[in-house]
Amino acid sequence: MNEVPASIRLIPLPGLPEVEPKTDLAALIKDAAHAAGIPLAGNIVVVCQKIVSKAEGRLVPLESIDPGEEAREIAAAHDRDPRQVQIVLDESRRVVRRGNGVLITETRHGFVCANAGVDLSNAPGEDIAVLLPIDPDASARRLYEALSEPDAPTPVIITDTFGRPWRDGLVDVALGSAGLAPIRDDRGSRDRAGRELLVTQPATADQLAAAAGLLMLKSAGIPVVVVEGFPIEGDGGVRQILRDPATDLFR
Amino acid sequence: MNEVPASIRLIPLPGLPEVEPKTDLAALIKDAAHAAGIPLAGNIVVVCQKIVSKAEGRLVPLESIDPGEEAREIAAAHDRDPRQVQIVLDESRRVVRRGNGVLITETRHGFVCANAGVDLSNAPGEDIAVLLPIDPDASARRLYEALSEPDAPTPVIITDTFGRPWRDGLVDVALGSAGLAPIRDDRGSRDRAGRELLVTQPATADQLAAAAGLLMLKSAGIPVVVVEGFPIEGDGGVRQILRDPATDLFR
After folding, report:
1. Fold (CATH) for B59-132
2. Reported ipTM
């Protein structure tokens, strides 16, 4: 992006029906966009993971879970449902932090977040947990392929809201991406004074996720936002921006 | 925001001249917006900290610095300029992590970031360090008051690009804010199934910062972005979203 776009527009997609397992999510998004007169060609579609997970059937009834000893111990210490804790542990590589009723883990994908992204809110029933997609980059790619037309790509980002260290509040981050580079490599380019910019690598997918998150308030029921005007470059999955543990100062 | 806006537009502000110490930044922004036909009334102005710091004269010539023993030791271990390290230490409460040539500290404000936000790129001369504003919330409030018209507020967010644990790449975050609530408290509201949402607190200021960051690529020289269409609520500084160390699992 050497030329700056005149503007970027974030458009909430209205009219999406409730998503059920085996729903054809790409077809729902296409129909809703068509009905609302919102073009998808050349634009970016940002999708909340919850509806992706539901469409993929990533739902677990709590009553199906028989919590083990570790889950019971953590649940007792933090006033949690041991069945939910068991699901979180099953979805995790390791527990990163525990405290204040919060369980922060590293998911099997490598995301560090509360409860391994397992959620009860907006689930189909009180006792159903919604898990993250098994492979959010693959989910994004399937949607990208189904939404794109020949010569008119529609990149896809799948997002979730994460807390972060040191700051209160949640921001939306990218879990999966396809059809655009999740990170922009400006290393080697120069600043306005001609000095080389050594470490400027904007995490484009996460910036787009946060931007779309401005319209994805849970209470408003907007799980899809279309981004218009952002110059599309490259192609890759979010997996490539998960930091290598060997160079991560926070492991 | 119970009603969802039809869209949000992110508009880069072109035509800003180079900012010098004692520049009247609000006047520059007003003039540039007027020349470009971009209304400020009722919109949010997102400003890169670099030009705020320059206008406030937060510039330190490296030749004025006599590095102490700790700075020399750290600089030697990480192949850095000891004078720059001394400035970073002077701006910091504590060193959070060291390694891979990176020095992550907690600034006097309470931000955790690389090099206490001290930067050499885009500085007026090769040997000038640009420091963060002394009180970014106060800087934002001064701009907010100067940009707002009676009955037509123009909230202001001052941003910088930060790395983060566990993920590569940089995202823009809010350092200061005025004229809008930096965090939205949805606790007590209900999801679509009527269940209470317990912990949904979007960090609005940071989501806006990241959204604006999509247009603030350093090489493009766009330090101000106007956000149109986002419903403005509340008023507060970023300081209120810095996590209380007592409840922070990452201290």
Report:
1. CofE-like fold (3.90.1660)
2. 0.93
